[in-house]
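Good morning C.,

I know you're traveling, so I'll keep this short. The sequence:
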Amino acid sequence: GTARSIRLQAPGEGTRPLGDRVKQTLFAILDPHLRGARFLDLFAGSGAGGIEAISRGAAHATFVERDPGAVRTIKANLQATGLADRATVARGDVLAWLRDPARGNEPPPDVVLLDPPYDDAAVVTVILDALGPLLAPTARVVAKHFWRDAPPARVGLLASDRERRFGETALTFYRLAATPAEPAHSTEDA
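The tokens, ready to paste straight into the viewer:
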């Protein structure tokens, strides 16, 4: 994209960079959906995902990250790439941010990248479920996860339609489903 030659800062320990091969494949698949899109980068880390989206034609990217050091890094990377005027950086917990009633006043995202820490596989399902009602009708959602911790094929309003694996990293792609998934039934013993 337009920020191709600019080297991004990394926030340090505790974040996993979006590897080149993963990023190339991810954005080759998303490219037809990016022109003029509203991109949402959840668990944004360095902001590489959202910055790549803007540089490839997304109209705006919102970055959500709770780590203050990572937020500073995202802002520095946006300044370095000259893309800060097309971005919003929100510091906070992703789930709390998604559930904030103020989300109803914002245009819905067209493309979402969800890249949570690998040590909490269950968070992917919770975030996907919360995202469903907030999305534009033709939205694409991509969950990056440890390959052994694949999220369900159906979560709330979302259904997966593609998966790609790169060593220990996997990407699962979602669209809004025609009908919502049935709620999970508990099998706990009384």
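Safe travels,
E.
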